[in-house]
Amino acid sequence: MLRPRPTRWFEILSARDDATLVLEALARTGAVELEARGGAALPADPAEMQPLLAQFEELATRYRAYWPEPAACRPSPFPQAPQATLRRCLDALRAWAREAEALIQVLQRNEADCADLRVWQRLFAAWPADADAAAWAAAGPLVPVRLCVLPPGSDSATVLPAAAPGLELLCRTLSIEGQAHLLVAGRDAALQLLAQRVGSAKGSLHEPPAWLHADAQANLAEVQRRLDMAQRESGVAAQTLQELSERHALARTLGDAYRVQWLLANVHELESGGLFCWITGWSSDSGGQLLHDALQRSGARALLRHAPLPQGATAPLLLHNPPWARPFEIFSRALGMPASSEADPTPLLALVVPLMFGYMFSDVGQGLVIAAAAWFYRERFAVARMLVVGGVAAAFFGLLFGSVFSLHDLWPALWLHPLDRPLDVLLAPLIGGAVLLTLGLLLDALAAAWRGEMRRWALTDAALIVVYLGLLAAFVWPAGLWAAAAAALYFCVGHALHATRAAAVFGAAGELVEKTVQIMINTLSFARVGAFALAHAGLSSAIVALMDAADSHVAKAMVLVIGNVVVIVLEVMVVSIQTTRLVLFEFFTRFMQGRGRAFRPLRPPPFSNQEN
After folding, report:
1. How many CA atoms lie within 13 A of 590 on its CB side?
2. What is the rounded distance in angstroms from the CA atom of residue 96 to the CA atom of residue 63?
3. Is the pLDDT score of 94 beyond 70?
4. Higher pLDDT, 163 or 444
5. Range of lowest pLDDT (13-17, 154-158, 366-370, 420-424)
6. Do 138 and 196 touch, CB atoms closer than 8 A?
7. What average pLDDT does the segment 552-569 reach?
């Protein structure tokens, strides 16, 4: 569990014509990373395929909105060579486009007409009773009129041009559903300037339709009639377009095109001959059954075997943790994948991180709020799963410190009130930090054993643990200094023995001073955990003081609620940052370098692989 697990090398001998089916099946398992042993590029020379892909993208830009979604597209069960497939798809898509273009233009025209009609529908629903719509629209050939619609929250004064010769405008403003609607009349120069300003404000300008009546109700009836007519026409066009797509097998054609696009984006090199090809790489499926079953379902002509690692190959690694610890893998991955000879501390962090978070955020009510909110968002954000445990830990320390929504008088503290005994609050995380850093040094020893360097560690770095613990013990047990001094001498002599030269003693002495000072400073950094616990208690006291100063019960309740919201929002960010800093820069530096190769599975294709 502490050691990253290497992936397994696999080799598949496949008929060249079935290589695409094999690759699809492997990608859908999510358990394969491809790595070629060398050979010609497959499936085709990218330089030859780029013009064809560009033509496909050009068609997609124009017609993608009228195509089925990629997930609904089903490619052919027996794919051809990629270049031939893409040429066939382009011919089929162009044939479909020639027949569909007129229908698409009808849909686009009706969509634009309906959007314009709905603007007039909203306007006439709020039309003033004393206004004549027909007379307004026919103000005169020299003074055209327009309807200007601004986005919600926009000020009409920001778009109207300043009064100047030739730029005068007559304007009447109506507020409809929170949007300003301006009925504007003026000369062409003024309206052109108005159009520029409305466009900059992301508004719209509309010419009055020719069919306007004097009565607003008559206009509403006319708008509804035209909307119904446009929607009926669009429905017929959409149905005809659907029939056209089925006749041209559009879903299958697009599935084939998407398959080629996916293949070229994700598979760059395979070892291939005239009839067969080797598909090789790494699998996270340690037993091999998952790959075997995927190949069986694909129907491809292929043989699978798990062979020894190729000479000089470096296997990608997987973190091997139980489900309850996996959310905390984010810390190990932050510095890169641990190497096969490095320890993955994720199970330890699953305990340490919530304790540090909860200690700094010690409040029963606030902790439960954080836990509940994180539980609600646990499927959307990976970090929320850690906050669930952190919130529960905060509630636990809230019980120890006697804090519930910043109030300290609801029940007695099970341990202490932070502001009453601040030194104890600071000392506890220092002791915890010393234990954590010692564990880091022991994890370094474990990594040395995995690398077969236990003798070197025993002669050198083993003494560093004794020096560190001796110096810490000296604060309560003076004899600890003697133990630290003896270990320091052993450290220097051990380096000389390992290097088989006496001069190594001097370098070892400098190294010992540097590492000792560094780890003592790292230990002192954990005092920030207690400092933030005290800061949290101070904020809680400030909220209580402001609440006591309020005159009414309503004001007291508002201060309490707003204060707790501010504390939760502010301290979730601050405490999370401090916890991350202590883990990455104080703890990880003791044993981790992150030089491993992470496993990156082949991305699955976007289309469906089910047959019609």
Report:
1. 32
2. 10
3. yes
4. 444
5. 154-158
6. no
7. 92
At 274, is the secondary structure helix, strand, or coil? coil
User: pLDDT tier at 142 (50, 70, 90 boundaries)?
Assistant: low
pLDDT (mean) for 424-431? 95
Q: Does 500 score more than 50 pLDDT?
A: yes
Architecture label for domain 1-41+267-316: 2-Layer Sandwich (3.30)
**Which amino acid type is present at position 132?**
D
Q: Tell me how far apart the alpha carbons of residues 122 and 439 are, in angstroms, rounded to a whole number.
A: 69
Q: Which long-range contacts (CB under 8 A, 24 or more apart) does 320-329 make?
A: 320/1, 320/3, 320/4, 320/5, 320/344, 321/1, 321/346, 321/347, 322/1, 322/347, 324/350, 325/349, 325/350, 327/382, 327/383, 327/385, 327/386, 328/353, 328/386
Q: What is the pLDDT of residue 40?
A: 46
User: In this structure, are strands 145-149 and 169-176 parallel, antiparallel, or unpaired?
Assistant: unpaired
Place of tokens 């009706």: 110
Alpha helices by DSSP H, listed for 126-205, are 133-137, 188-200
Q: Which contiguous run of DSSP H or E holds residue 8?
A: strand 8-15
| The pLDDT value given to residue 36 | 82
**Lookup: tokens for 152:** 């919600």
When pLDDT is cut at 50, 70 and 90, the band that residue 215 belongs to is confident
Contact 23, 300 (CB under 8 A): no
The Cα 217–Cα 44 span in angstroms is 65
C-beta neighbour count of 354 within 10 angstroms: 22
**Tokens 């004393």 belong to residue:** 130
> Is 59:96 a contact under the CB 8 Å cutoff?
no
Displacement of CA 426 from its chain's centroid (Å):
36
Look at residue 611 in the predicted model and tell me its pLDDT: 46
Can you tell me the mean pLDDT for 396-419? 90
Report residue 525: phi and psi, to 5°: -60, -25
**Contact indicator for 271, 278 with CB cutoff of 8 Å:** yes
Both tokens assigned to 309: 């690692």
Q: Report domain extents, the chain.
A: 1-41+267-316, 122-233, 326-590
Q: Which residues, in sequence order, are bridge partners of residue 306?
A: none
**Residue 559 identity (one-letter amino acid):** V
| Cα gap 141→121, rounded to integer Å | 25
Please list, in sequence order, all residues whose beta carbon lies within 8 angstroms of the beta carbon of residue 154, skipping any fewer than 6 positions away: 180, 201, 203
Q: How far apart are CA 226 and CA 168, in angstroms?
A: 34
Chain segment 454-486, per-residue pLDDT in tens: 999 999 999 999 999 999 999 999 999 999 999
Residue 86 predicted with pLDDT over 60? yes
Reported as a pLDDT band with limits 50, 70 and 90, residue 171 is: confident
Residues 6+ apart with CB under 8 A from 131: none
Same fold, 1-41+267-316 and 122-233: yes
> What is the number of residues in the chain?
612
Structure tokens at 191: 């309206």
Q: Identify the CATH class of 122-233.
A: alpha beta
* The token pair that represents 534 in the structure block: 């005290």
Q: Is the pLDDT confidence value at 404 over 50? A: yes
Measuring CA to CA, which residue among 543, 580, 535, 548 is closest to residue 565?
A: 543
